[in-house]
Amino acid sequence: AEAALRQSQKMEAVGQLTGGLAHDFNNLLTGIIGSLDLMQTQLGRGRTDGLGRFLTAANASATRAAALTHRLLAFSRRQTLDPKRLSPNRLVRGMEELLARTVGPAIDVRAVLAPDAGAMLCDPNQLENALLNLAINARDAMPDGGCLVIATANMTATPAMAAALDLQAGEYVTLSVTDTGTGMTPEVSARAFDPFFTTKPMGEGTGLGLSMIYGFATQSGGQVRIESREGHGTTVRLFLPHAGDASIDDPIPAPPLTAEPG
Ligand code: ADP
C-alpha cells in the first residue's frame, strides 16, 4: 500500500511539472509546425526531392510531438489545487504514524507543535504529499538512523522579511521538517529545487520531490526554503498563508460518504 501511495505521489509530482513544461513546449511546437507548413507551401507540397522529404519528415515529427504534449496536458489538468482552511497541528498529528512507518524504526520521529500555530490555507492532499516526500528525503539522508522533527509555528513576515523570502508581508504558518542527516553541499542545495535534479542512484530518485513542493508552496501563496549544513542535517521550511485563529480542533472537512452522481 505504501509503494502504491508513493507511486501515486510521484505521478502527482510528474503531473504538476509536466503541465508547465507541456504548455511551453506546445507553444513552441505550434510555432515550429506553422513555419514548416509555410515552407512546404512555398516549396510546393508535392515535392519528393531531398528538401521536400526532409520537410515532410520534420513536420510529421513535430506533429507527433504536439500530440504527445496534448496527452501530457490532459494528464496534468487533473492536478488542481483545492485549498482548504486547515490546522497544521491536526494535519501533522494525523500523519505521524504514517511518517514513522515510512522512515522506519532507526529514525525517531517527533512533532513539535506550536499551540498558537493557527489555521492555514492550502490543499491538504498536496501538503500531505509534500510532508511525505520530505520525510522520504530525510530518511535517505539518514542511512544509519537519526532524528526527524516536524515543527509548526506562526510567523509574521515584516516587509523586510517578506522581501527576502519573496512573499507578501503578512502572517504565515510555518511547517518545518528537520533531519540529522548528511546535509547538502552548497552545490546540491543550490540545485535542490531544480526539476529532475537528483544525487540518488538511477531508479531511486526522480529529482521531482522538492521541485513539486516548490510549485505547491508558491502556488499556495507561500514559499519554501532549505537550511542545510553538510555533515549536520537539513531543515526544509514551508511558509503557508495564515487563515485565522482556528482552534487546533478545527475539523478538516470530511469527504462525502456517498459518491456524487456523474
Ligand atoms: P529526489 O529525492 O528524487 O532526489 P528531490 O527533488 O526531493 O528529488 O531532492 C533533490 C536532491 O536534494 C536529492 O537527490 C538530495 O541530493 C538532496 N536532498 C533533498 N532532501 C535532502 C535532505 N533532507 N538531506 C540531504 N539532501 C537532500
UniProtKB/TrEMBL annotation:
Protein known as: histidine kinase
Species this chain originates from: Roseomonas haemaphysalidis
Domain Histidine kinase: 20-244
